[in-house]
Amino acid sequence: MRRAKIVCTLGPASDSPEVIAQLIHAGMNVARLNFSHGSHDYHRALYKRVRDVAEELNKPVAIMQDLQGPKIRVGKFKDGPVQLIEGNEFVITIDDIEGDQERVSTTYKELTRDIAVGDVLLLDDGLIRLEAIDVTATDVRTIVQIGGLLKNNKGINLPTAAVSAPSMTEKDKIDLKLGLELGVDYIALSFVRSALDIHQLHALIPPQTHDIKIISKIEKPQAIHELEDIISVSDGIMIARGDLGVELPPQKVPLIQKRAIRMANEMGRISITATQMLESMTENARPTRAEASDVANAVLDGTDAVMLSGETAAGKYPVESVRMMASIVEEVEHGRGSPIHHGPQFIQHLRTFPNAVAKAASIAADELNVSAIVVFTESGATARLMMTYRPTKPIVACTPNERVYNQLAMYWGVEAYQIDLLQNTQGILSRVEKMMVEKRGAKSGDEIIIVMGNPAGAGSETNLIKFHRIP
């Protein structure tokens, strides 16, 4: 069984029912809907397609809505792309103009308020570098430090400026409303800078949908300094190495990745490692050796999930990319001496009874060599605690809640099953026995550990460990 999960971005290369089914068979656990692209009608149809295919295959698949955030871009050029020459001046203006060799507009109308002389502007994922030499009410005059071909709508990163744009734009609020209407399982918030950004997102989510999980994307330098606070108010983080690697020197990103994953593990939160993991498979049928090592090292770092972006959204080999990623993960997890089961000694700031029960169950499962840890969970919280301790035995999570059933697809080492809500412990035990035999091939005499709240069906906190033998 593969423990680390796989997130796949869906797009033109992977949005048909046939390819979605192939992705699930290949190992996709989470479908990412990237709201930087596509209309609402497109995402509405894609959401339904994923749900229909997953139901047909009887597989839990989480759906994550990834909000665009305040992406700053240049505008359009009158006569196509322009070549910026090192040493020349170039103007970025908030006026609505068609660009030329000397100037271009920007989508961000607060640019002249946020930029100061000496600030750096990185265009097209850092390929072009400008420095501000003069700022007026409407224009930022720059000197080209690193030139290149600048095309329409390319991104602008401002690594040295304090950007005043909120993490939630008006577009994001409209997109969020659609995501809530559809019933997405996770919402990924882009360009998070502090815990306040997550609080503002929570304020927009109605109480009846409070069980949607929030993933904070770590891609701004400011987020690195606020990492513990951000993780503490999030359900998980995504180490989005694309923008992070533009705004920070590339050599700093690997240690930031390791620190962020470790901190998320210690705080009992989900971690997703993302961006360019198998980038070459967008065009090629096989990854580079460096890419294989990148995926492997993320797994060794303790990431809960690894993510594919363009590889599955627009690449030539979407299914092969997932299959390759799954095989790399499995090879690492099954390798001799693999450290993937080294969970934290105790989850930070969470010295609670359910936490102690989860740790005890993990240790006992290893000591007794049981076949599985079976967790009965209505909210998913017990399964999250169990995964944090990285037990060597499979975590079989049973839930009556359909959203939780799908959310569990993201959880490290968790195999999810949806069962009826039962009001007594004996009824749950009988249902678990039946499920273990029918779904997992358990045999009479097999030993399992059951973790749940007692009394059953009453929303009780996790307080029961039962050592159980299949009759």
Ends: how far apart? Answer: 25 Å
**Percentage of residues in DSSP E strands:** 15-25%
Number of domains: 3
CATH class of the largest domain: Alpha Beta
Compact overview of the structure:
With about 475 residues, the chain is of the alpha/beta class. The chain is about 35% helix and about 20% strand.
Q: Which descriptors apply to this entry?
A:
six-stranded mixed beta sheet, Pyrv_kinase-like_dom_sf, M1 Pyruvate Kinase, Domain 3, 471 residues, Pyruvate Kinase, Chain: A, domain 1, eight-stranded parallel β-barrel, Pyruvate kinase, ATP binding
Structure description:
There is one protein chain. This protein has 471 residues and is an alpha/beta fold. It has three domains: 5-69 and 167-336, Phosphoenolpyruvate-binding domains (TIM Barrel); 82-157, Beta Barrel (M1 Pyruvate Kinase, Domain 3), CATH 2.40.33.10; 353-469, 3-Layer(aba) Sandwich (Pyruvate Kinase, Chain: A, domain 1), CATH 3.40.1380.20. Helix content is 35%, strand content 22%. The chain has 16 helices and 21 strands. The strands form four sheets. An eight-stranded parallel beta barrel has the order 1-2-3-12-13-14-15-16, surrounded by six helices. Helix 1 (17-26) packs parallel to helix 12 (318-333). The radius of gyration is 24 Å and the shape is elongated. The chain starts with a strand and ends with a strand. The model has no long low-confidence stretch (mean pLDDT 94). InterPro entries: Pyr_Knase, Pyrv/PenolPyrv_kinase-like_dom, Pyrv_kinase-like_dom_sf, Pyrv_Knase-like_insert_dom_sf, Pyrv_Knase_AS, Pyrv_Knase_brl, Pyrv_Knase_C, Pyrv_Knase_C_sf. This is Pyruvate kinase. It comes from Bradymonas sediminis. Pfam families: PK (PF00224), PK_C (PF02887). Pathway: Carbohydrate degradation; glycolysis; pyruvate from D-glyceraldehyde 3-phosphate: step 5/5.
